[in-house]
Design brief:
Layout (H helix, E strand, L loop, with lengths): L9 H14 L4 E5 L2 H10 L1 H4 L4 E5 L10 H11 L4 E5 L13 H6 L3 E4 L3 H10 L4 E8 L4 H14 L4 E8 L1 H9 L8 E4 L1 H7 L6 H6 L3 E3 L4 H17 L4 E3 L11 H10 E8 L3 E10 L8 H4 L17 H6 L30 H8 L12
Parallel strand pairs: 1-2, 1-7, 3-4, 3-5, 5-6, 7-8, 8-9
Antiparallel strand pairs: 6-11, 10-11
Helix pairs in contact: 1-11, 2-15, 6-7, 7-12
């Protein structure tokens, strides 16, 4: 029987904590890949009740956070193009580019619209036939299939005024890059729950096979995460190293075949630039050759900035997403960088590590104190 029948039951939490303390026999650095896990860990104060030898390392679990400045600048350049509407998700509005943001461009008169689904962007193209609608699409495997459906739908409708600026990123390649980074020490992984509903647990089997680190794919309630920690420690006690699924109510081994078919039909793997991490081979997706008519980068290549901007030197967002630093290591955190005036994407996104620490734990600009 599953331990987590009531995902917020304090009695279950106490039992799991007892089991974790009993099994914990030394230092354990656990990287959570998903920003949803980061927020649950920080919001619940989990780090304060776990054995001090257990350390969470916050990884590149937020697609907004790893969107490079150059990609933001491309979206801004298209927002300045005449008769162009930029459609994107709300988190992307305040992510800073090299000199502006989409929110600032909107304030100057650019046509930038927040959408709640990719099909909302298609609807904008139908309703505005005299304007080019560019969907600035970001996301991990969780949202990629739905974004891909927008291209399929636009093609079905015969739209010529719809295109996508793709910044889709894939989880397994960045995990490999993190594991190959000598500056990062990881003993185990909390596998991403939402991503795994699409790709299944099979995509992480290279981690124990090649790197000898256990992986437990976790749900998002505090008790889910505690049970996942228990499962990791149990693997270590028993001398095992494998992929296990705690989030079995949503994740299977092979994922969602229909969603994966959409991804295969619409996108092709490409090298992708990750903010603060660099280029990773086959870690991103662009539209397939036969769908280039819907690819904004190729359709409006002449509008794209020629120079590759450097990331702000005072922002350590890249080191945070790599698991090398924490928000408290940033001199600008809570002072020069706040949700209202962010230096980097980690403070903007609802799944960003800096946003989680600012909201739930650390300093406030008003008082300089510590949040309760």
């Amino acid at each position: 029987m599953k331990l987590v029948d009531e995902y917020r039951d304090p009695a279950v939490a106490r039992y799991l904590l007892e089991q974790i303390r009993e099994l914990c026999d030394g230092p354990l650095n656990i990287m959570e890949i998903c920003g949803g896990h980061t927020h649950s860990i920080v919001r619940s104060g989990m780090e304060q009740v776990l054995p001090p030898t257990i350390k969470f390392v916050h990884g590149p679990g937020c697609p907004v956070c790893v969107t490079p400045t150059a990609k933001i600048d491309q979206a801004i350049a298209l927002a300045r193009r005449p008769r162009t509407i930029i459609a994107t998700y709300g988190d992307m509005m305040r992510v800073p580019g090299s000199s502006s943001s989409l929110l600032q461009e909107k304030a100057k008169g650019a046509h930038v619209k927040i959408v709640y689904s990719s099909l909302d962007a298609v609807r904008l193209a139908v309703e505005n036939p005299d304007s080019e609608v560019v969907f600035f699409a970001v996301g991990f495997e969780t949202t990629i299939p739905a974004n891909g459906l927008s291209v399929i739908r636009a093609k079905q409708l015969g739209l010529t005024n719809y295109s996508m600026l793709s910044n889709h990123v894939l989880v397994p390649p960045v995990i490999r890059a993190v594991l190959d980074d000598p500056a990062v020490r990881i003993d185990a992984f909390l596998g991403p729950g939402h991503v795994s509903t699409i790709v299944g647990s099979q995509d992480y089997e290279f981690i124990p096979a090649e790197y000898h680190r256990p992986v437990v794919i976790s749900g998002f309630e505090p008790n889910d995460i505690l049970e996942s920690l228990f499962m990791i420690l149990k693997q270590r006690r028993e001398g095992r190293c494998e992929v296990e699924v705690q989030y079995s109510r949503a994740v299977t081994k092979y994922g969602n075949p229909r969603a994966l078919d959409v991804v295969k039909d619409v996108f092709s793997p490409v090298e992708q630039e990750w903010r603060g991490i660099g280029a990773i081979a086959e870690s991103g997706l662009s539209l397939r050759e036969e769908l280039r008519a819907f690819d904004a980068y190729h359709k409006f290549h002449d509008w794209m900035p020629l120079q590759r901007p450097e990331e702000p030197s005072e922002c350590v967002c890249g080191e945070i997403t790599r698991g090398v630093k924490e928000p408290r290591d940033c001199a600008s955190f809570g002072t020069g960088c706040t949700p209202e005036r962010p230096l980097g994407a980690c403070m903007v996104s609802t799944e960003g590590t800096c946003a989680a620490y600012y909201r739930y734990q650390l300093v406030t600009v008003q008082t300089g104190g510590v949040r309760d």
